[in-house]
């Protein structure tokens, strides 16, 4: 793999604008290369054409053994430098400025431009790196104070042996330590006192060089850390942060209660604080790893591009330039490495019980490895699915079921039951396609959704679940077709009609299975998000929550199928294979509720975000879902009751909702259709190189948004049954949602890139009275 592709594959997607633009610098080497090759060809062309081969007979004999050490030094050697690199200050920040000394050479103007842009790239990288190092240093200070509070809190809760945990003992031990410090200060030389100041910091001891043997000697002779008690007085300035993420906390906020509470020294609070701080350290360590990788990759990129320059221009400037890079803050600062070591020491000691292997396995989780058995199992299930579909078609054809009198009853009873699995499988396939293209275009979907590192599902795993469900559903359909009516009683056997219900029960059992099988973390994540949607707006709204709620708005027909399950099996219609649900007022009333409830959840989520974020866009987004609720309810009323009045109402409400939703999809969710963009009618930054894809996606979204017209106009294709048309329209909506998913997450990813947001914010357990910004 060429370095350019390897470099692009390893960079942090959200920081890609801050990396050295390797391809851009390669483009500035092309004029130099073109000029050199053109000049060389022009100089050697005429003489070589006139030279006869016989001239070689009169050349000097060079010998059979090559002479070593007689080659002249290449032009631009260290003794004859071609560049001078100076340190300058630009906009209050240190930078570099390269002076090209061979401007008078033929084509030197191209090399001058190259070094100008190279300096700009280096200064950009150095400035960004220094800013990020300052950020992590500030964050390290915050985590340091959090650890002090946690240790004191741990002492108050656990009450270790020999520690009475009284204020008198705290004061006495503190005074003893203060007295010992005064005595040491008076009797110890200045150099030793400075050394002892370093010894006090336990984490710093593991990073001292081997040359500081005198400090190690003082550590062994005078160790005052054992006499220093935990700083319990710090608890007088600390309160516990309350995160407004539960219904209880939400009600307290509505009652204008404080966002902090006094310390309650209980085991639960200690465990909660330890878990929060543990996650904060893991995220902080991950940030340090990426920052270290950022420095390494950029230095390597500068070395590679300078090597290319030396080869093309026949210079020897890379040594001088890379010496400047190595001496700069980007190449010489070891702050990040030291912080990583200190984080490791602290985490292993306080969160892994001094077990290094356990602590490092948490800090450095192994990357997810694609397993061959997943691919094999998926391929096997694909074959089974194709075989079952073929068998189903042959059985229908052989028995002439389409012309059978019972087909109408089957379409009214069994088809709505099995269509539920078709909707689920189609949505899985669309999600798997989304994952594939997100990975291809480097959309960091795992970070955006907040998946735990190494637990996110790939498209192969999602397809595996989808084909597994399709095999079970098709096998159940074939079993139903194979079981005939009882020839004596002319009644359907109950066991035959219970197959779809059993399959639904199996899916529910798998989703709720507490065992660590079948990707438990992903199942639990999905259930938590679903629970937050159901209880909206009592929970703080995150992106996975409203993203899942948007998926549910495209699964209204699947929810209606679940409603039909309750009616069909709850009222005993399955024993006679009848459909009397539409004759019930309760069922028809719930048809309105089921159709509107996903949009209602999204409306409540928008209201919650409007109250918390004070963002007017959330209010407009809520109006969009309110208009959709009116449109869905009016179409449902027209389907049940008919009449010109309901038809006009459904047309009007659906048209308004379609216009509103289409505009929001394209402009707000996708960020497209921007008039002032450098890409006409698109946005400035695009991940897909082919712009026509975006225009096609906008057109397809508009067309699929009009699928509701089938409900109002009763459109039929090839005399298909009404249930088939309903399922077809629902499938088109699922496809539209899958298309929406890709561009919605692409826009979110680009927003994160624009703000360099590569890490999620982790709530901290404690808050200091004198630090309002923590």
Q: Describe it for me?
A:
- It is a single chain.
- The protein has 774 residues and is mainly alpha-helical.
- Helices cover 66% and strands 3% of the residues.
- It has helices at residues 3-10, 22-27, 30-50, 108-158, 167-187, 190-200, 202-205, 213-221, 247-254, 267-313, 318-327, 329-332, 335-351, 356-363, 372-398, 407-440, 445-449, 459-482, 494-497, 499-512, 520-534, 543-553, 556-570, 585-613, 616-641, 644-669, 692-705, 709-713, 722-754, and strands at 83-90, 93-100, 238-241, 260-261, 766-768.
- The longest helix has 51 residues, at 108-158.
- It is globular and about 95 Å long.
- Mean pLDDT is 82; it is low at 66-78, 176-181 and 187-228.
Question: What helical percentage do the residues reach?
Answer: 55-70%
- Can you tell me the residue ranges where pLDDT is under 50 for at least 5 consecutive residues? 66-78, 176-181, 187-228
* Overall spatial form: globular
* Arrangement of strands in the largest sheet: 4-3-5
Task: Count the domains.
Answer: 2
* Rg of Cα set: 35 Å
Largest sheet: 3 strands, antiparallel
Mean pLDDT over the residues: 82
Structural class: mainly alpha
**Number of separate strands:** 5
Number of helices: 29
Task: Report the portion of residues in β strands.
Answer: under 5%
**N-end to C-end Cα span:** 45 Å
